[in-house]
Design goal:
Elements lengths: L16 H64 L6 H29 L4 H67 L4 H39 L5 H28 L3 H14 L5 H100 L14 H19 L1
Length: about 425
């Protein structure tokens, strides 16, 4: 019996088992890479969002809250300018405000730089608040200057009153002495001498005494009025006191003019003129008090405007905080959406990988490789045991089919040699 010829290989394109396995592994690798890319992209987005919140959003919130606290501190400093009583106190308070103001401007600058937000409105509100407080500071300086002028005027008033008292009291005592002894002299007089002495007593001594007392009364009223003016805080009351001062000054000048006609006294005249000058004119106590009241009214208006400017600044700061928080919440929501989407894609890719793996296992590896190898192994075992009629499956165009054809050739040769 002749040997069976070796079966010829099938011609044409051939895809071997190794290529198919590599292709299957390639598909799984591609799916794994896709899953890794999705995870990498998701983690990258989460990382960038967290970094943005840590490096930009949260610092903006912290800086804005600190700015709000600084604005509250600067606003609290404004009423303290009303309590300042000396240049040193004002300088100390101004130094405190300058530090708070510098900190506020630095915070606004940092918010604009770190947060990459529009801080123009907050800057404008801060400029307005600083301007209002600086205006109050300037008015405080004016108030201190006015207070110094008032103290100087009161000092002049005291000195002028002392000078007048010395001059007027001596003059009144002399007039009283002249009247007293004049009456005593009348007892020993008669005729024309008596008539002349009476006329002198009435026209001169009595007039001098009466004018001295009138001047003292008017001067005392003037001094009391000016000291009252120094304490007035109401504009209407000051206007009324100013009118009283003008009337009293006119009366004093008239009385002084009559006294000068009867008994000239330069010391007394100068003292009365200085008393009147303390109250009148642009450097007079009445005008000084009017300027002080106007200054205090300006400070009170300024405090109201400071409150309004502070409220505006707080509103702008709240807007910055809300904006930063809104951005952070939007970024968190976007990140959460991305995470959910990534989870979905990872699930789909994982499920796809599982389906591909199961499909390869069940429909290719099990049927095309494991099943055929088991059949080939069974056929080979049977032929080795002598069952030469065993059917050998040679379908396919791969390494297993080549082995099957070799086994078939081995079987046919064994049959031929029997």
């Amino acid at each position: 019996m002749s040997k069976t010829e070796k079966p010829a290989r099938q011609k044409g394109s051939r895809i071997g088992i190794a290529a198919r396995i590599y292709a299957a592994l390639g598909v799984l690798t591609v799916l794994t890479i896709a899953a890794s890319l999705v995870a990498w992209f998701s983690y990258g987005r989460v990382g960038s969002t967290v970094a943005d919140m840590v490096e930009r959003k949260m610092p903006v919130v912290e800086l804005a809250l600190e700015l709000s606290q600084a604005a509250t501190a600067s606003t609290a400093l404004a009423p303290r300018f009303m309590e300042v009583q000396s240049v040193r106190e004002r300088a100390t308070l101004t130094g405190e405000f300058d530090k708070v103001e510098a900190r506020q401007f630095e915070l606004v600058r940092k918010i604009g730089e770190q947060g990459n937000v529009d801080n123009k409105k907050a800057q404008a509100a801060l400029d307005n608040l600083s301007r209002q407080i600086n205006d109050i500071n300037d008015l405080t300086g004016e108030r201190l200057r006015v207070a110094a002028e008032a103290a100087t005027a009161l000092d002049k008033l005291g000195k002028a009153y002392d000078n007048f008292s010395k001059a007027a009291s001596g003059e009144a005592e002399q007039a009283k002495f002249a009247v007293t002894f004049g009456f005593k002299d009348l007892v020993a007089m008669s005729g024309e001498a008596l008539s002349s002495a009476v006329n002198t007593l009435m026209d001169r001594d009595f007039a001098i005494f009466d004018l001295a007392k009138t001047l003292q009364t008017d001067v005392n009223e003037m001094v009391g009025l000016l000291r009252e003016v120094a304490q007035i805080t109401d504009k209407d009351r000051l206007d009324t006191a100013g009118l009283r001062f003008k009337v009293l000054a006119f009366r004093l000048r008239s009385t002084l003019e009559e006294a000068e006609k009867v008994a000239p006294n330069k010391v007394r005249s100068d003292a009365v003129q200085r008393l009147i000058e303390v109250g009148e004119g642009t450097e007079g106590l009445v005008d000084i008090r009017a300027r002080d009241i106007t200054t205090r009214e300006g400070i009170n208006r300024g405090l109201t405007e400071v409150d309004q400017a502070a409220a505006q600044l707080r509103s702008e700061v709240d807007a910055l905080v809300q904006g930063a928080r809104g951005d952070a919440q939007a970024a968190a929501a976007s990140t959460q959406t991305l995470i959910e989407t990534s989870k979905l894609w990872l699930g789909i890719i994982g499920l796809g990988s599982l389906v591909v793996a199961l499909a390869l296992s069940l429909f290719y590896v099990r049927r095309q490789i494991v099943g055929r190898l088991n059949r080939l192994w069974a056929a080979t075992r049977a032929i080795a045991d002598g069952a030469l009629e065993t059917v050998v499956d040679t379908k396919g165009n791969d390494e297993i089919s080549d082995i099957s054809k070799s086994v078939l050739l081995f079987r046919d040769n064994a049959v031929a040699l029997r």
